[in-house]
């Protein structure tokens, strides 16, 4: 169950990061509220996963999911540029997540 909580927390980190961008500096109410709700839920699920998973593993995977997920969302939904360096960086983060899971 802890891994499910951690994956859900990582997904919600992507949601709140995207909503933060869409809030335009907290000037738009709906994205700001979505961000706050997703943030609270993400932290709550992360804390539940930490009941049985190590701190380093939980936090690294949570931030990695958020970082790579926000990178992908930025490309797909916001038209951010894709460069070889950015792709390599995202792949390295993903490789770190997989390696941490296997450790």
Output the helix-strand order: HHHH
* Derived structural class: mainly alpha
Low-confidence stretches: none
Strand content: under 5%
Average of per-residue pLDDT values: 96
Largest sheet data: none
Question: What is the count of β-strands?
Answer: 0
Count of distinct structural domains = 1
Count of alpha and pi helical runs:
4
Helix percent band: over 70%
Give the termini separation.
18 Å
User: Can you tell me the overall shape?
Assistant: flat
Radius of gyration equals 14 Å
Topology overview:
Blueprint: H1 2-22, H2 29-49, H3 55-78, H4 84-102
Helix pairs in contact: 1-2, 1-3, 3-4
Transmembrane segments: 33-50, 59-78, 84-102
Pfam families: Multi_Drug_Res
Main location: membrane
How would you describe this protein?
The protein has one domain. 83% of the residues lie in helices and 0% in strands. The model has no long low-confidence stretch (mean pLDDT 96). Helix 1 packs antiparallel against helix 2 (29-49). It is built from four helices and no strands. The protein is mainly alpha-helical and 103 residues long.
């Amino acid at each position: 169950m802890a891994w499910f909580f951690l994956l859900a927390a990582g997904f919600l980190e992507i949601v709140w990061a995207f909503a933060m961008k869409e809030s335009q500096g907290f000037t738009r109410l709906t994205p700001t509220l979505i961000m706050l709700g997703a943030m609270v839920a993400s932290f709550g699920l992360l804390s539940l996963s930490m009941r049985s998973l190590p701190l380093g593993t939980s936090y690294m995977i949570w931030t990695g999911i958020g970082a790579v997920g926000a990178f992908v969302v930025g490309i797909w939904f916001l038209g951010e540029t894709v460069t070889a360096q950015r792709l390599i960086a995202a792949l390295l983060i993903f490789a770190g997540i997989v390696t941490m899971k296997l450790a």
